[in-house]
Amino acid sequence: MASIYITRKIPESGLEMIKKKFGKFDINQENRVLTKSELIKNVKNRDGILCLLTDSIDKEIIDAMGNTCKIISNYAVGFNNIDVEYASKRKKMVTNTPGVLTDATSDLAISLLFSCARRIVESDEFTRTGKYKGWDPMLLLGQEVTGKTLGIIGAGRIGTVVAQKLARGFNMKIIYDDRSNNFDLEKSTNAKRVDLPTLLKNSDFISVHVSLNKDNHDLLSKKEFNMMKRTCVFINTSRGEVVDEKALVNALKEKKIFAAGLDVYESEPRLANGLTRLDNVIIVPHIGSATVRARTLMATMAAQNLIDGLQGKIPKYCVNKDRL
Ligand code: DGY
């Protein structure tokens, strides 16, 4: 019988599949991230691991898995928490959960975009605390969304869907920056591919959807925020490390941009100094995929990846099949 370790509770749908197939598994019963030494202890001599984006699966953890472990099934679409190169060297399949969270995450990016543009959180606070004394021509003026230019940084699955929803629903003009042309996006929204400086200078709204890699840490820093329009709304639902958060705090403080909506942070769950004191930022706790549907489907997908890997198949969502 396969020996399986799950680093944190995920929705029942996935756990049931694993139980049905293999009879049992071990799981971290506490509702917290395991420490490194706990991870090392628990992954030893397993055949498969199901882990979360909050587990840093580095060389040391992979070595602790030994030779028995065949598969590391990540409960996330992003897999920057895993040293995939080293896992491949040690002949371990790494899998992720793409597609099922595209709608949830794109919906959140759009919610943040509107909430920032129309100052929804500030307005709620204003009304709730009794400051609303009557209609005022100059009260809480925001930015209009319809017909404006949206710059998408990273036109993969989620970036594409954000652009399509906003182009169809709100007639936004789409420009995007990516390593290659996305012809589906161009065809469906009339989007134009531009370089990053052109995108930064011309967008009314910017939404980041890149996956984190070794080349894009601090992709958006002081220089990039300085290029944006003063009326620009900046959204990040991808990974915090692509933004120099200190530079973003300064840009917001100095009103170099209008507002920002953030779901992810550079040193999650820690926030940059000064971020919570700003009125022109909306901060939410990495909830991009946090819908019942998305999290349930992520669980069944991660479980299926694990089951396939343990049964000697290459799972459909194996990210390192060419490197094994
Ligand atoms: C992911 O899957 O990578 C998201 O950040 C969390 O669901």
UniProtKB/TrEMBL annotation:
Q: Which Pfam families match?
A: 2-Hacid_dh (PF00389), 2-Hacid_dh_C (PF02826)
Q: Which reaction does it catalyse?
A: (R)-glycerate + NAD(+) = 3-hydroxypyruvate + NADH + H(+); glycolate + NADP(+) = glyoxylate + NADPH + H(+); (R)-glycerate + NADP(+) = 3-hydroxypyruvate + NADPH + H(+)
Keywords assigned by UniProt? Oxidoreductase
Q: What is its EC class?
A: oxidoreductase
Query: Domain D-isomer specific 2-hydroxyacid dehydrogenase catalytic spans what residues?
Result: 4-320
Where is each D-isomer specific 2-hydroxyacid dehydrogenase NAD-binding domain found?
A: 110-288
| Entry's Gene Ontology molecular function annotations | glyoxylate reductase (NADPH) activity; hydroxypyruvate reductase [NAD(P)H] activity; NAD binding
PROSITE patterns noted in UniProt: D_2_HYDROXYACID_DH_3
Which Gene Ontology cellular-component terms appear in the entry? Answer: cytosol
Report the EC code(s) recorded for this entry. Answer: 1.1.1.79, 1.1.1.81
Q: Which domain of life is it from?
A: Bacteria
Annotated family: Belongs to the D-isomer specific 2-hydroxyacid dehydrogenase family. GhrB subfamily.
Q: What PANTHER family would the database entry show?
A: 2-HYDROXYACID DEHYDROGENASE-RELATED, GLYOXYLATE REDUCTASE 1
Please state what the protein is called.
Answer: Glyoxylate/hydroxypyruvate reductase B
